[in-house]
Please model this.
Amino acid sequence: MIKAKKKRGVFSCLKFIYHQAWKCDKSYIFVVIFNAIFNVAASLPLLFIPYIAIRFLQDSKNYLYYSLWLVGLLTAFIILSIISIYFSTKAPWSGTFLRLRRFFHLMYEKSLTCDYEVYESNELKQEKEKAESALYGNWRGVELMFKGSIASLVGILGLIVYLATSGFGSYLILIILVVATALSIGASFFSSLLYQKRVGKIAKPQSVMEYLYNTTKNSSAGKDIRNYSLANIFHVLFVKNVSLFEKYNHFQNHVLILPNLSNCVFGFLRDFLGYFVLVEAVISGQIDIASFALYISILNGLSTYCSSINNGISQLLNGSKETALFIDYIEKPSSFSQTGYDLKELPNVLSIDFEDVSFTYPGMDKPTLEHLTFHIKPGEKIALVGENGAGKSTIIKLLSLLYKPTSGKILVGGVDITSFNSEEYRTLLSVINQEVNLLAYPLDQVISCSLYPDEQKLQKCLKEAGISEKIASLPQKEHSFISQNISDKGIDFSGGETQKILMARALYRDGKLLLLDEPTSALDPIAEGQIYEQYQSIAQNKTSIFISHRLASTRFCDRIIYLKNGHVQEEGTHESLLTLGKEYANMFAIQASYYQEDN
Amino acid sequence: MKDFLRSLKYAHQLHKGIIPLTIINAIGYSLLPYVFIYFSGHIIDMLIANNSDQSIIMTILVMAIIGLAIGVSNAITDYFIANANEDIHFRLQTRISDKTLKLPYSSLESQTTILMLRKAEEGSNGSGDFASLISYSIGGTLRSLFSLVYAIILFSNCFSSISSSNTEPIFLFLNNPFSFLIIFAVMAIGFVITFFVAKGTAKVSYEFYETNVKTNRQGAYLVRFITEGTFAKDIRVYGMAKMLMDSLSTEDEKLCKIYWHFVRKYIYYAVLSFLGSALLLFSSYFFVGGKAYFDIISVGSIITIVGAITYFSTSITNGIERFVDIQTQLKYLKCYFDFLELPEMNCDGCELPKEEPVIAFEHVSFQYPNTDSLALDDVSFTITPHKKLAVVGPNGAGKSTLIKLISRLYVPTEGKITLNGIDIQTINEDEYQGLLGILFQDFNLFAFTLKQNISCTFIGDNKKVEDSLQLVGFPYQNKRKLPQGLDTYIGSNIEEGTDFSGGERQKIAIARALYKNCPLILLDEPTSALDPKSEQEVYRSIAKLTNQKTALYISHRMSSTKFCDYIIVLDKGHIVQQGNHKSLIKQDGLYALLFNEQAKYYR
Model:
């Protein structure tokens, strides 16, 4: 996909991050400003000490005046420094804090609400991960930009103040200093641009190594690695990618010498010329030695501020790369509507209609669903069957408004579902998906999907799902944590128990549409039978779709839809399809054959 | 101390140049400011003494050139160190991966090991990784040590005295060469304060870190949960966004309070440390000023000496802070070292017996670590060669545990598993694994090429791979699915490849077991994700796979037991029934119950 996007610049990023900072912690901007002011102010008193030393200990010996001035200057120095320390300690921590608080929040919120396709498309997923990397660390992305802006501000302010202080001396000095500084900063810019051009090649070996690293740590993968002796392949791949990475990385880093070297060279020129001009001024009698000492301290102080600007700029430039990606990611609009049709207008029991729906997953060339049309009456229980890859799970995803159809319409209760607010629409659904993923929170919160569950409703759902006895037997009952990821006292539930928990959650949700995608795949025959028995009462007054490979489940449904290659191949009741004697009958016969006694 | 030496050892192993580079870099950086301090004072003295213009200009030139040379050297060492730092990061990852692959499986699954790595990784993200330990913390400490050396050289000037007829006590005092030791005394006070401050700061850091980790456990988990794609569906379909954001806000509030509590302490310590150095500054200027007043030293020397004192004391302060950083960083970085020193799998052992392999369980009991109940309780049975054994039972009966024990992922808590009478734990690991081909319930295919996944080697035998794929009914000649044929990658984590469906992946996994061509096949729920047609195909290929071999088959689908010669029924870790299908149906026990539960829908 070719996207002609305008690249977001440093200033745009700065604007964004400070706008966010202002929203979260208004004091931050002031901390940054005062940090710069007091940092520079605190360094000023010390500048004058060589001056007074020469004035009162060489030119005219007066130890008293020397002491008085000294006390005055040092007191000012101490007071200003203490204030400066307050701000300079607070500033970086505030930056970290902003990152952890405000920016991570933006990221989480986006993760939770962005279009689902991000998670199923490799390209989009990588984009997301690159964007998020702007927040992982004190010296990257967003926080690096905060640090850079602080350093730059200190440097710029210092430069201005020091140049102004030296201004009432020789203009030549001023020019030399300004030019040298400008050249140095220019070199920084240039090298950063060069660096950005070279970045990119290391991304691939880096991501391969991340993959290899994470896979070897994965205990599930570890089983196959051991049994199939795959350790060697991993090792070889690692070594290969490490050397690739090093090669590209060194090439990329060549560029980084540039700002440092230019700093040295221009610094050399600045110092030499600066001292030269000053010495000439003393020799020709333009300034006295005391003033010379003052200007020398200013010159030395200046180089520190020049470094500060240099560092600041390179930090800003480096940080802006990832920050720009992050901002683009955050500001990407959702493709689903946020306002919509009022749910209350819908009838109590809903119909489902797919009208000529076609759907191709982003990035794939062949459509998964092709001109799919079917109608489900309100309150009907449909079994959706078909071979792997026929598109059954895709139908559930479309009904869940995780994707929008490429063409055609999906209607629920007669209304096009894309005209609803996606969050509100989904309250109509109770879904059990194939993948089992439970939050490691207390059971009652997980089932109710809220931090404040309704006790009675919860107990009722546990009972209906067939798990209330097991829960009652736990030490913390329904407040037990699931798994030990958060609490050491958490419970590891078996596969079957987990599926019952999922059922309880679907029940608690009490959606008008009940969508079940292989809800019994991990259950033993007894537990499976219980689910089927419950199904009738669970699905009462709801419209439901039951996907399962176990054709036994079709017995409990009113009608069967047989899907093949993305469209409806056969439709009807169990008996009528058996009579038809085609695909469905064939599939049923295959499964039934295992259970016939005379085999 | 031991950890510090360990860190040096590993640093040197990971990158031969990093330590010499850090030393040279430290020498250069600490020297640079002294150059200017020394020459500034010297030039002022030359001006006061009215030296010739040329000599002054020459001095300036020399100063600038030395500055340039040192600056360039610093830039070069910085470049090499930047390279080295990044190299070290990935080399460390390689070492850790290699180590992970050599660990015994129980170690890999153990919470302790997982936490070890996590602590090291989170610490690295928060307070600097291993490379930063060497170049920033240790480098910083070295800088201050070298600073000490340079300062001593410059201070030599302070011990001068002049001959004079002045008899004022103050003059006599200042003229005494050793009076300068007062300054050292003040400096010492400053260092004591700094040390006290540094210790305090470290304690604060440590408390901060520990509190963070504790409070952060839920936060860190939430972070993973939210950003990983696996939960994205549920979050949207169940409207969990609000609940999770609210959870995070509560975590936030906690974090807020902790942060400011600690930042206040940091500020307090920073100010205290500063006051120590301010005291030093005060006294130096007065003292050295006095010496200059009496012409004991030149005015230019004031600049040099005070500059040197100030710079010296700042660099020692920095050094102490970096030194403390070392201690903080070692606290979590040592987890890496501990991990790298974990005991590895013992692959030694006796050779495989030459006869037909017969595996037997002899009174085996097993309890997973950190659990209360037995997963298997006094289980005994034999896997007869060339026969197919099915293991069935309700959820949680212990079926998958059997496979984990046979494959030596875990060791029985009691009893033993034997191969032709020999305890399998005493057999050479590699040879033993060569005996078994396993299809785990949560099998993994990796992002290598199809050929590499099936042959489990880098190159593999094309014909043999094709044969295996043919047997499982995988269309390996399909150009759309396999644009690069057998060299097509699976998934896109390494190179752009194809994403295969659940059924196709299962066939590839079976082909992998076929390719291995070993006498004993273990299959755990191989068809749970498959539709009836694919399931049938897989049963057929499994029949071919296990033809003439010994097989252990675990499944919920009672349908599969019909292919097996012998069936074991497990319930809550015990064997409750054994026999073939017909006899078990007759017994009308648990087996019959399970079978009929499923069969009744098909009659």
Q: What stands out?
A: Residues 63-113 of chain A form the longest helix (51 residues). Chain A touches chain B through 161 residues (CB under 8 Å). Chain A has a mean pLDDT of 86.
